[in-house]
User: Fold this.
Amino acid sequence: MKDSKGWHLWGGAALLVLAVFATYARVWNAGFIWDDDAHVTANPVIIGPLGLKEIWTSAKANYFPLTMTSFWVQHALWGLNPALFHGVVVAFQAGSAVLLLLVLRRLRIPGAAIGAALWALHPVQVESVAWISELKNTQASFFLLLSVWFFLRWLERTAAEPRWPDYGLAWTCAVLAVLSKASAVMLPVVLGLAWWWRGGWGLRQVRWLLPFLLVSIAASGWTIWEQKVNSMASGPDWHLSLAQRAVLAGRVVWFYLGKLAWPEPLVFIYPRWEIDAGHWSWWLPAVALVAAAGWLTWRRGGPLRAWFFAGAYFVISLFPVLGFFDVFFFRYSYVADHFQHLASIGPLALAGSGLALLGRRLTNASGAVELLPALVPLGGLALLSWQQTALYRDSMTLWRETTHQNPRAWISRVNLGFQLTTVGRFEDAIVHYRAALELRPGAPEILTNLGGALLQLGRAAEAVPVLEAAVRGNPRMHEAQNALGLALIGTGRRADGRRAYEAALALKPDFVPALYNLAAVFQQEGRADEARPLLEQALRWARDPNSRFAAQRQLGEVLLGLGRPAEAAAALAGALQLKPDQVELREMLALACFQSGDWAEAARQFSQVVASRPDSPEAHNNLGSALVQIGRPAEAVPHFQEALRRQPGFLDARANLAVTYARLGRLSEAQAECELVLRARPDHPVAVRLRAETGQPSPP
Assistant:
C-alpha cells in the first residue's frame, strides 16, 4: 500500500523498526538495574512462590498487573536472561513507533513519519526503553496508541459501514493500556482532543467517551490509593501546599519541553527542587504556561490550531505527574525522563510537521525527498540515544554516573554504596553512606546500609548505635531490625539480638535473612528443633541464589545435628548445586551420606574433596572409610597411609588402616597397626574391637 506522497508506508515502518533496534543495540549486553529486582528478579509473583493469581488479585503487582503478567510470561519462557527482557521492551517501543506513524497519518498530520521517528529515537526515551522496569511505559504506549487508532477508525464510520467492532477494540486496548501503567488514565481526554482535531466534536459526543472515562476513574482511584498505602507516598516529602503544587506544575512542563528541545544533560535522578511559592520567580513558569495556554486556546481555530493540539495533548498527558497527585518518586526528584514518554508525542509530532514543511520548501518536492532535511536531526538524536544507553549497562555504571552528574542525589549515593558492598569495597561504600547522611540526616534506610557496611568490616560495636538510630527513625523497617540483631549478636548480646530478629519477622514474616539469622541463634543455643521450621520457611521464600544457598546449608547442618542425615544430605546437595566450589559444604554432604548409609555417594563426594584438598589427612581418612564400606578396601589403603604420612599421630586413620589390613587378610600388618594405636590409647574403640576380631572402620 502506497501513501499519497509517493513512498511506501510499510517500507517506512520497517525502516523505523530497524532504526529503533539499531539505536538500542547496546541494551542486549545490559543487565538488571534499579527496581528490576522488585519487578522481576526478586519478585515472588514472577519467580515464585506466588504467581498469576496474586498478580491479578493482590497488591503484589502494584498498579500494573498486565505488565507484571508480561514479566511472568517472559520468566516462564527464558528465565532471568536480561538480554531477552530488554529485547521485549525495545520491541514494544518499535511497535509503538509504527502505531504512532499510523495514528498521525490517520489524523492527517504532515510529516507523520518524521514525527514518529523523532519520538522513537529521542534521547529522553532512553530511560523508558533501556530500563527493564519501564516495560510498563512502552507496553502502555503500545496499547494506548492502538486504542487511539481503533477509535479514529471508528470515527470514520458510515451508515453503510458502522465499524462497531473498532469501538469495542478501542475500549479493550484502553483497558490493556491502563492495566499496563496507570498513567494512561488520561486517554479519554486524548480521544476527545483527537475527535476535536478531526472535526465534528460536540458535547453530545461525550457519551461515547464515558466507557473510557469509567475505566480511567477506577484506575485513578486505585493508583492514588496504591501510591499512598502500598508505595507509601506520604509524609514530609509529599507535604506541599496548593500554591507549591501550582508553581511546581508550571516548572515541570517547561522543564520537559526544555529537555525535548535540548536533551543535555540527561540525568537518571535530577536535582530535587526546593519549592518556594513565596518568591515571585517561582510563579513565572506557571504564569507563562497559563498565558501560553490561553493564547493557544483563543487562537485554536486559526494558524495555531496544530500548536494548540500538540500543547494540549502534552499538558494533558503530563497531568498525573505535574505534582497535583503524590508519586513515590517525588521523594527523589519531581521530574524524570520516563514521566514524559507518552506526553512527548505532542511536541515531537509538531516538530516533525515543521521539518516536513521545511523539507518541502527547501527541496520543492514532496514524498520521500521532503525527509532529507530531517535526516540530520534524526541521525543526531539516534546517536545521542545510542550513547545514552551505555548508562544502563549495569547498576554500578548507572549510580556512579548519576552521582557524578548530581552529587546531591542522596538515593544515588546510597545505591552506589550498596553496589560497592557487592564487590567488597566496604570502606568506599561507607564514604558514600556518610555523604548521603549529610544530605538526608537521620534517614533510616541510609543508617541501615551504613550499619550493614560496618558489620561487614567486623565493626559490630560501632554498628549498634547506628542501627539503633535507624530503628528509632522507622520502627517498622524490618531490614534495620535484622541488621541490628546481627550487630547485637556480634557484641555478645545474644538475647537482645534474638529479640531484634523476632521484631523483624513480626513486621515481615517471610523475610528470609531474619529467618535464618534467628535459626542460627537457636542452633547455637542447642535448640535445633526450633531452628528447623524457620529454615524450612526460609527455603520456601528464598529466591535469589545466595539466600537459597544460606538457607539450605544451614538446614543441612541443623538436620545433621538432629540425627537426620538423609534429610540433611538432600538439603546440602541442593546447596552444593548452587555453589559447587564449596569444598567444606561438599565434605559435609559426604558426611551426611556416610551417616545415612549411602556410602557410594559418600565415596564419590569424598573423592572430590581429596582432589580439592590433597594435603588434608581428614579427607584421605574419610575417603578410605567410604571405600571400605562399598567393598573396595584395597583402594582405601593408600588413602589411610597418606593420611598417616601427613599426620603420623592420626589414631583414627591408623585404626582404620589396621581394620582394612585385616579385611584384606594381611593380619600381621593389621596387628602391628592395632598395637600402635592401643599403645597410644588403650581404650580406642576400633582397635579394641579389632583385637576381638569384630572391627569395622570408624565413621569419619
Confidence is low (pLDDT under 50) at residues 1-6, 694-700. The longest helix spans residues 82-106. The CA atoms of residues 1 and 8 lie 7 Å apart.
